[in-house]
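Minutes, project check-in
Item: structure for the 243-residue chain
Input as provided by the requester:
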Amino acid sequence: MSQNPLQNASQVRDHLTEVQHRVKKTLLEGQRGPGEATILSVSKQQPITAVEELFRAGQVNFGENFVQEATKKITKLEHLNIDWHFIGHIQSNKTQDIAKQFQWVHTVDRMKVATRLNNQRPHHFAPLNVCIQVNQATEPQKGGVDPTGVEALARGIMELPYLQLRGLMTIPPTTKNPADSAQFFAELRKLKEQLAIKGIPMDTLSMGMSSDLEIAIREGSTIVRIGTAIFGPRTLKIKNPNK
């Protein structure tokens, strides 16, 4: 028997409250300010009604992985003041849609993509906020630039007038023990600090998900990408999400 939609809405709000408590508690323990880590609700393969419910509960930032799915949501919810973050793999033929529809992109990993996003960003829009995705464990199935290539890419992005370099993003290797992610989060924070010394200031570390958000915040995360802890299991099944 399916659940009552009102019950589902209540659960989503309750889950958001629980995540907010986790974030606030961890920031307090780390002697960080209450606004120093933003919750990014990962709404991929979740219904538009759930996004609307979270927005009414005060959630503003939403992350999407697939351009076609995101376009439908952004169009349907254009009357809401949502900040949309693209957090999926970037295909070159999708950069125009991303540049026009999103406020943030977390997964820039090559200069070709950065240049296309810059050239396709409407000039009357605010600059597109971008993070460089770093593939710290050089996993072939994941996007991201090798840590040794981050500086050159960052300097290239800084030359593009319609992009605003904000920071670094990582997805650590999947592990049964979330604590194993700590070293990767710490290394990303150190990389950000090293780049600042070289004249590349950034204010964002996009790292941490439902299972390891506390670990990420303790290592300096400013954006945690939360999906299942807020929405529960994904309810939509998309066979070809990138088409």
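Outcome recorded: The beta strands are 38-42, 61-64, 83-86, 104-108, 128-134, 163-170, 204-206, 223-226.
No further action items on this chain.
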